[in-house]
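Re: the pair you flagged

First of the two:
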Amino acid sequence: MENDKGPAIKAACITLWMLGTVFVCLRLFTRKHIMKNVHVDDYLIILATAFGWANTATAIVAVAHGSGRHTDTLTLGQQGNAKFYTILSFPFGVLSFTIPKFAVAALLSRLLNPSRVHHAFLWGLPWLCLISVIICIIILFAQCTPAAFMWGGAPEGKCISPWVLIDFSIYTGAALSAFTDLYLAIYPAMILWGLQINIRKKTALSVALGIGSISCGVAIYKSTRLDSLASPDFIYDTAVLVIWTAAEATSTVIACCIPILQPLVEILFGRKILSGSSSSYKNYDYHNDRSGDMELSKIGRSGIQHTARTHTLGSRSGDPDLDSQESILPKDSKGTDRKKAQMHGRHITRTDVITVTYDDRVTIDSEQKDQGVTTAM
């Protein structure tokens, strides 16, 4: 078994992507059936998962032809097919961990309402990663002339040094991709710690949104295995690279899904596991008009004018962890809020007051009706 890593490739890739797919399904269930709203980042995660399974499928076909075994134990036909399908799996693999970065950027742009500079930087990093990955794919298939010479499909040809691809891949993976994952994890934490909310909630939200930093470590470690692309025993030595490519992609996908799942967790466990509150989503009617997102910047449809420098955090009025200021609604003669509760036929309209202060001294007060306020987590 030491001389055959094929079973390990199949077991690792299938297990990792089954786990990733479970999280994606839970994410989609939460978005569609609990939040009643599916966003573009959800479709991007679906696309990344499709690329991941394409990577797994081609890796399995490569194993069937001998991938994971030493080259000298295979026939010439097996060597060619194993190398071809291994090479073919790489584009799907790198796209499966690049596309989720766009999903994270879309989510954070919607949640945090960043400034113009941060917005450009937030989207610029994923685009730079995608461009770099496309260049890697081009180098991969253009390093030999004709390309089929790489896997023995052509009797004659010439190739550039494999270290051209390796060096650029190290830049793309260990430097650019890892830095992007780290930035996308740290940036929301920086914003959250500037908000006047309970320290426990800050920690929980920062951990949930920053769990993508795990992908950073995986990307760096995977880059240490890229030298296998220059190995004379390519079919055997690239087995570990195939496995860690799947690991990086699934860790990124799972990290993208975890922050979205809290409404589902609250329904299943009846309390806020991450935030420590005792209230539950079960108390809400999800068939009402809801924004469908755990957005920090979204406060229903109350008509708030968001600016590039505005950072807001939606909350439920009455949450002891978040309420810190008195009501600013007009009082009636009895001292109660004039619009606190109104009855219209058989419908109840609830009014929530949202007050959030960001560290740049900007305070936003808004009034939210029809139970349209959503919490960050």
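Second of the two:
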Amino acid sequence: MKICHIVFASFLLSTIVQAQNKLYPNEFPLGDVALLDGPFKHARDLNIEVLLKYDVDRLLAPYRKEAGLPQKAEC
């Protein structure tokens, strides 16, 4: 009886599920986008500045510890 339900459910799912070709039909290359001066560019620049200030060794310390590799900084 369970096999019958599984076969029936898989048949129903196979007829319902359809893959979507593209998420958006009018996609364009990222190179076609220019970010001009404004709040979004300021936020992006500030985000980049903050991310570059992070100590990479400190961020990777727990993963290096878990992998058994020598730590360059403490967690």
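The mean pLDDT is 85.

-B.
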